[in-house]
Amino acid sequence: MSFSRCSRRWIVLILLVFGCSSLASADDALYKDFGERPGLVRIMDDFMNNLLADPRTRPFFEKANQERIKAQLVEQFCELLGGPCKYGGLDMKQAHAHLAIRQEHFNALVENLQIAMDKHQVPFRAQNKLLAKLAPMHRDVITR
Predict the structure, then answer these.
(1) Where along this sequence does the record place binding of heme (predicted)?
(2) N vs C: which end of the chain shows fewer Cβ within 10 Å?
């Protein structure tokens, strides 16, 4: 059976349309795994509480505008997870340049994020997908 050039174009077009919609569904599924925006707000509330309770990270957050940081994290994570948000804050290099963050501080932050995600029963697979998206940022966050 041979396909005409026109038939092949339609097949390619159909595959692209359905392929893209399934990719959008996959991204949307990850966002939903985090409870969408309301879930992200709850996770960030607990995340900030964890950061303030941890002596390794408290100095970076106790005098900062915690509500603003949480709101920016919700926006950033929402965008990374395929949600409808657009992060409008500073890039990671600018935001962290003056903080003298070391690898151990960054590791503590990740631990505290994982604790918050576990508390809200974010599936382990979804946590790993988010952490994989965040991992490249460590080069801009660690400044010392």
Answers:
(1) 96
(2) N
Identify whether the C-beta of residue 34 lies closer than 8 Å to the C-beta of residue 122. Answer: yes
**Which CATH number fits the domain 29-141, given the four candidates 1.10.490.10, 1.10.645.10, 3.30.479.20, 3.40.50.720?**
1.10.490.10
Q: In the chain, where are the structural domains located?
A: 29-141
pTM above 0.85, yes or no: no
Q: Which has the closest alpha carbon to 126: 33, 35, 42?
A: 33
Tokens in use for 116? Answer: 């918050």
Chain-centroid distance of CA 107 in Å reads 16
Residue pLDDT tens, the chain, 144 long = 444 544 444 444 444 444 443 334 445 799 999 999 999 999 999 999 999 999 999 999 999 999 999 999 999 999 999 999 999 887 788 888 778 889 999 999 999 999 999 999 999 999 999 999 988 888 888 877
